[in-house]
């Protein structure tokens, strides 16, 4: 929870003096917004905002919601979430990967299904950037966009784990990831392997995948050699889509 003794910093963009709601991130940054932006996102947020409007708030100029999760509710995540709900276009570069991943998980936590098409559209634009396609596959899996995940497989042909160490994007490794250091070739990456060869992934990234996407990618790897020079990426992506369609068909049959 933000330190009550410390005055929060105010976000440079979301700082409208006319706004009627303050969001305080877990790292103590305040965002002044209008309630309707949050209320329009989900039933959960509508209930949270409504709970602030009782008699005890009558003499307070701004209602306030304080977030506490250091991973999902920090300033970078809230800023990106507000960019989405206010239709602002953030700069799409490698450094957005961690906030985008955490924004997806934040939206799931607060049941903001309405923002998922925008999250998916934002993720699709990353295909134009110089970003390893395994990151995009993870983002696609989290937002449950099978077509985007297949596109990441198709475009992964030239991508392989480099021989030199290249740091993950800022914030990509969570606190739990950094507690277990991994050497390359053990539970870390296998240098030189294709980035869509799931057995070459660091354990931390494997753990991020929802089970259907993990199993489907494992089955694709069993059928196709996803090395950079294999040239089978289009066929592999098609097979991946068939696997996911079969998974979704069986999932629907259970209901």
Plain-language structure description:
There is one protein chain. The chain is of the alpha/beta class. The protein has a domain at 132-255. Helix content is 43%, strand content 8%. It has helices spanning 35-39, 43-50, 75-85, 97-109, 116-125, 133-143, 146-154, 175-178, 203-206, 211-223, 233-253; strands at residues 9-15, 21-24, 29-33, 63-66. A 4-stranded mixed β-sheet has the order 1-3-2-4. Strand 2 and strand 3 (29-33) form a beta hairpin. The longest helix is centred in the last third of the chain and has 21 residues, at 233-253. The radius of gyration is 20 Å and the shape is elongated. It starts with 8 loop residues before the first strand and ends with a helix. 32% of the residues are buried. Residues 55-60 have low confidence and may be disordered. This is BTB domain-containing protein. It comes from Kwoniella heveanensis BCC8398.
Write the layout of secondary structure elements.
Blueprint: E1 9-15, E2 21-24, E3 29-33, H1 35-39, H2 43-50, E4 63-66, H3 75-85, H4 97-109, H5 116-125, H6 133-143, H7 146-154, H8 175-178, H9 203-206, H10 211-223, H11 233-253
Parallel strand pairs: 1-3, 2-4
Antiparallel strand pairs: 2-3
